[in-house]
Design goal:
Bound molecules: zinc ion
Shape: elongated
Radius of gyration: 19 Å
Distance between the termini: 43 Å
Strand content: 15-25%
Number of strands: 11
Number of helices: 8
CATH topology of the largest domain: Rossmann fold
Structural class: alpha/beta
Order of helices and strands: HEEEEHEHEEHEHEHEEHH
CATH architecture of the largest domain: 3-Layer(aba) Sandwich
Largest sheet: 6 strands, mixed
Length: 218
């Protein structure tokens, strides 16, 4: 018996992981109607299972997701969570990596012997948000330098549709959802111009409001 899996946007919105019609202050200080924080999914059993199923379907478009020679690779905290989830569904091995101290490259966790697991494996990278491609490119380099082959990658959200499999130099890339949300300089923000209430959380609206005490809030 198969259950109906909600759409990815419904899952993310239900967890407060994505806002598309708000007014928030980003870490950069810019204002935006949108906010994405997929870490909100971590530890949420049902949501993670549903996201894992959707990722599996996307892997199936290209290859047998349950194939034993496939190795799932998860960069950083959320990549690791996603890899673990999908591995449990399809019975794959999985490993994770993290940025080095100056963030110039990815490295396998120092305490584990992942280097030995990678050699000769067909690797699929799972990541949460694709913005600049830096962490994906670093992960691709790490896999190749460890003797693995990059088969493809799945990201939950792609914020820049210019970043394709071709740009990354890999056979395929699947994005569960492409989202382009503009961000504005605070002094030219059209949302401020229309007095759209500022969200104190998530984001940094709670700091911004100290300098704008009369502005409406949500
Ligand atoms: Zn604004």
């Amino acid at each position: 018996m198969s259950k109906t899996i909600p759409g990815i946007l419904d899952i993310l919105e239900a967890q407060g992981a994505i806002i598309t019609d708000g007014h928030v202050v980003l870490t950069s200080g810019k204002h935006s109607a949108g906010y994405i924080n997929l870490r909100k999914l971590a530890g949420r059993r049902d949501a993670m299972t549903d996201v894992g199923e959707i990722i599996s379907q996307n892997i199936h478009k290209h290859t047998n997701a349950g194939s034993k020679d496939i190795l799932l690779v998860g960069p950083e905290t959320m990549g690791r969570n996603l890899a673990q989830e999908v591995a449990h569904i399809n019975g794959n091995d999985y490993v994770w990596c993290e940025p080095n101290s100056d963030k110039t490259a990815m490295q396998w966790s120092q305490k584990l012997d992942f280097e030995e697991v990678i050699k000769g494996r067909r690797c699929i990278i799972l990541d949460d948000v694709l913005t600049t491609a830096q962490s994906l490119l670093q992960t691709i380099n790490l896999i190749r330098s460890s003797g693995g082959e990059v088969e493809g990658a799945v990201v939950i959200i792609r914020r820049n549709v210019e970043i394709s499999a071709g740009v990354l130099g890999i056979p395929w890339l699947e994005s569960l959802q492409d989202i382009g949300i503009p961000a504005y300089n605070a002094e030219k923000c059209p949302l401020c111009a229309e007095k759209k209430p500022m969200w104190l959380h998530p984001g940094h609206g709670y700091e911004w409001i100290k300098d704008h005490p009369d502005y409406p809030t949500k």
